[in-house]
Amino acid sequence: MKSHDGIPAEFLRDWAELLGEISTTGRLLRRAELDVLADLGERAAEAGHHWRALVDLYLRETRRVWTTLPGVARAGSVGEAARAGEAVLTASEAAITALGAGHERAQRLAVRQAEAARREFIDDLLYGRSDPGRLAERAERFGLRLARAHVVAVAVGAVAYDEAHPLARRVERELIGRFGERDVLLTTKGGRLVCVAPDDERPVLAAFAEYATRAGGGRESADRVALGRSHPGAGGVVLSYEEALGALDLAERLDLPGSVLDAADLLVFPVLLRDRAAMADLVRTALGPLVHARGGAAPLLETIAACAAAGYVNAEAARRLRISVRTLSYRLERIRTLTGYDPADALQRYTLETAALGARVLGWPSNPL
Predict the structure, then answer these.
(1) Longest Cα separation, the chain
(2) Helix, strand or coil for residue 297?
């Protein structure tokens, strides 16, 4: 049986009879009765009934039976009727409070369960720990269609980010305001801000990088954003995520310039590190003698990197190093003399550059090989 407002009448239980007793005795609702009402509020929320509809149900029922309540109908004076009415109103107020407590309890539980389900899905998505078919089904609940190719962007800053962090909320608000609801997932993982977007939604990824690194400034903004490459399917999301994390790790270890990095631009580094022993041998062989230079190997390694970045234009390299061209020429001569590799020779220059990159990746000479 349905009540007039669509909520089953069972949620009223014996409310009319209870009001009748209270109108006569004037007593307050007992703890057990309040607990029953709280349970009814919780059940109503679980059934999908809104709080306002539940309150309206109880108020309407109270109004309907008001004139038939024994304490009101049989009152011998205005004072007795007022006292009966006051008791009924007090009980109604307490009942609504109890119903609200139960309704809110159910809502909080539902939110926690939804958050837990979303977090479990994100963990499975980024770590590839679930069956691809099942993962694709779950992904649709969160706005992703994993049949498409996706790119993962990861932002990292001086503080750890969670779902409640102002930067996460601001970036989400900006993205929705600019692009609307798209096939995009914005979340946090391991203290980082993560955006998963289809490959054909590159403007969304660019905006994410912009908002993450500029929004608010100071400690709220991210220091760097790295983008993985585009890959199809659920496994592609995992791969793109790992590439973005790898790019962030390289950026930190090598102190790479720029606030936005693309893993596609850093593919040379995984190649260099694939055979770590061979790279260490190259660094020792080609650059090992630099440790005997006055001031150590570090200034000469910096010189090799600056010359490469300047396209071996001495004036530009000297400017980047903040030294004179004459000092730069002296350093280049020391590199040639100590290593036996001539920076003016194309092949030997390539060997020096590769060894210098390897040294940065391996942390040499600070970390012995």
Answers:
(1) 117
(2) coil
Phi, psi of 56, deg, nearest 5? -60, -35
CB-based contacts of 262: which residues, under 8 Å, 6+ apart? 226, 227, 247
The domains located in the chain, with CATH, are: 9-111 (no CATH), 135-265 (3.30.70), 270-362 (1.10.10.2840)
- The pLDDT tens digits for 14-51 are 899 999 999 999 999 999 999 999 999 999 888 888 88
* 281 phi and psi angles, rounded to 5 deg: -65, -40
Q: Between 217 and 290, whose confidence is greater?
A: 290
What are the residues whose beta carbons fall under 8 Å from the beta carbon of 46, sequence distance 6 or more?
A: 106, 110
Residues 6+ apart with CB under 8 A from 324: 318
Separation of alpha carbons 71 and 84, rounded Å: 5
Mean residue pLDDT of the chain comes to: 86
Whole-angstrom Cα distance, residue 272 to residue 51? Answer: 62
Say what the pLDDT of residue 337 is: 93
Residue 310 has which token pair? 């300047």
Gap between the Cα atoms of 207 and 209, Å rounded:
5
- Dump pLDDT digits (tens) for 273-317: 778 888 899 999 999 999 989 889 999 999 998 998 888 899 999
pLDDT at 2 over 50: no
Q: Which two tokens stand for residue 286?
A: 């080609």
Element spanning 231, H or E = strand 231-232
- Whether 121 and 143 have beta carbons less than 8 Å apart is answered as no
Q: What is the mean pLDDT of residues 154-175?
A: 89
Q: How far apart are CA 23 and CA 21, in angstroms?
A: 5
What's the DSSP call for residue 29? P
Indicate the pTM of the whole model.
Answer: 0.62
Residue 279 CB contacts under 8 Å (≥ 6 apart), including other chains: 272, 273, 358, 361, 362
With a cut of 80, say whether residue 113 has pLDDT above it: no
Tokens of residue 202, six digits: 């590159």
Residue 74 tokens, joined: 């049989």
Handedness of CA 227, 128, 163, 111 (dihedral sign): positive
Indicate if the pLDDT at residue 265 is higher than 80: yes
